[in-house]
């Protein structure tokens, strides 16, 4: 699963003042790439466990973070098998 996360901060005006100390909200934009089959499985799990969307997104982001961490910290292994020499 390839996931992209982008954090944005925005300020809202109160009484005509645009000071960032009045009200500051943080939004998170998440782009999730999954197959249709994975989406169907995810929706079934949501219905069975009665999970909220926020809980599911938190779970997906945790999985993505762990897989990125593991892939970065594993030693490189060659994908090809050795070819025996013929005498």
TrEMBL record:
Residues 1-28 are annotated as: Disordered. Residues 1-23 have a biased composition (Polar residues). PANTHER family: OS01G0793900 PROTEIN. This is Uncharacterized protein.
């Amino acid at each position: 699963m390839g996931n992209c996360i982008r954090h944005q901060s925005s300020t809202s005006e109160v009484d005509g003042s645009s000071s960032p100390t009045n009200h500051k909200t943080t939004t998170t934009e998440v782009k999730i790439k999954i197959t249709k089959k994975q989406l169907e499985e995810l929706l079934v799990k949501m219905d069975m466990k009665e999970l909220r969307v926020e809980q599911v997104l938190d779970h997906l982001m945790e999985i993505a973070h762990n897989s990125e961490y593991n892939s970065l910290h594993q030693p490189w292994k060659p994908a090809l098998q050795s070819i025996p020499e013929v005498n």
